[in-house]
Design brief:
6-stranded antiparallel sheet, 4-stranded antiparallel sheet, alpha+beta, globular, single chain
Length: about 325
């Protein structure tokens, strides 16, 4: 699963019903992409080497995300020995080439959102971003009513928790209904190298939407996620806690409490200070003040087309 700010793998988007684009686990023919009719490029990033495209697959709106996969250390020797070089420029000791790698070493990760809604399309469209500062009162008067009025489905989260989907991807589970969670890789991580390790812990509780709902009552849940999540990652991937960045987003991309575990070497989408809150800081803040996240002001970015930004503008907060 995925959750990030910049396409960043894009954030986690799944369809809950069967459709012509195929179901998880089923073999899918090349026609899913070859039949894709391009309407427009929503966003592209040369630095992150990805592109987001809007179009149609068999008359259904779809978004296709193409992303170059990282170069893997374990394939370097084969890559250098079996590729062809085409000289572009040579000057003294410097030369540049186009390297044509074998197909199996030149993969492009492809994510398909189909059928895509207008919200999906807007999610990936390049937009201006504004930083909003939300007080506790703003949350109760502006943000919470807006969230409640929107149809933000988290059925795909429930599918994971109920083992109806992605059960084979779960790395660890604590089934306790109050303090338990499932831990599984984010879809932005291809699990082929540890430098961009990225996993998500999704809590079993369904009554906690985000950081704003947390009080000291939830400390056993949070400390359990931190300790057992770190232990599971060390056992499975030999990555110690000192090499992990463990944090929550505010605002989150979906309203069911979850915690991000990423490698500190990975500049993960959404890990910047305006959105990420270290789990260790959250725990300490709640230990000092149970109502910390009910009352304090929190800053977060909003895109120009976000309906919540309009609410803050109408209230004279932006």
């Amino acid at each position: 699963m995925a959750e990030s700010e910049n396409g960043g793998a894009a954030k986690r988007l799944k369809t809950d019903a069967k459709n012509d684009c195929g179901d998880a686990g089923e073999p899918i023919s090349d026609s899913l992409v070859s039949d894709f009719k391009i309407s427009r490029v929503l966003r592209d990033c040369a630095r992150e080497k990805n592109i987001f495209i809007h179009g149609k697959v068999k008359d259904q709106d779809a978004v296709v995300i193409l992303e170059k996969t990282p170069i893997r250390q374990d394939t370097l020797s084969e890559l250098l020995k079996s590729s062809q070089l085409k000289l572009e420029m040579k000057n003294d000791v410097y030369s540049t080439y186009q390297l044509q790698a074998p197909a199996h070493l030149n993969e492009i990760k492809t994510t398909v959102v189909c059928p895509a809604t207008e919200k999906h399309v807007k999610k990936y469209l390049h937009q201006e971003v504004f930083l909003v500062e939300e007080s506790g009162e703003d949350y109760r008067n502006l943000t919470l009513p807006y969230i409640s009025s929107q149809s933000f489905s988290v059925q795909w989260v429930h599918n994971i928790l109920e083992k109806k989907a992605e059960a084979d991807r779960i790395v660890f589970e604590d089934p306790n209904p109050d303090t338990g969670f499932v831990l599984l890789p984010d879809f932005k991580w291809d699990q082929k190298q540890l430098q961009d390790l990225y996993l998500i812990a999704i809590v079993h509780r369904r009554d906690v939407k985000s950081l704003r709902d947390l009080t000291s009552e939830h400390l056993p849940l949070l400390t359990n996620i931190r300790s057992k999540g770190e232990d599971a990652i060390q056992r499975q991937y030999s990555v110690p806690p000192s090499k992990l960045r463990v944090y929550l987003h505010y605002q989150p991309s979906y309203y069911h409490l979850h915690v991000h575990f990423t490698s500190v070497e990975y500049d993960a989408p959404g890990c910047r200070v305006e959105r990420a809150h270290l789990l260790s800081d959250v725990i300490q803040n709640l230990q000092a003040d149970s109502s910390h996240y009910h009352n304090r002001s929190l800053a977060f970015p909003l895109r120009a087309d976000d309906g919540l930004l309009l609410k803050f503008k109408e209230a004279g907060k932006v």
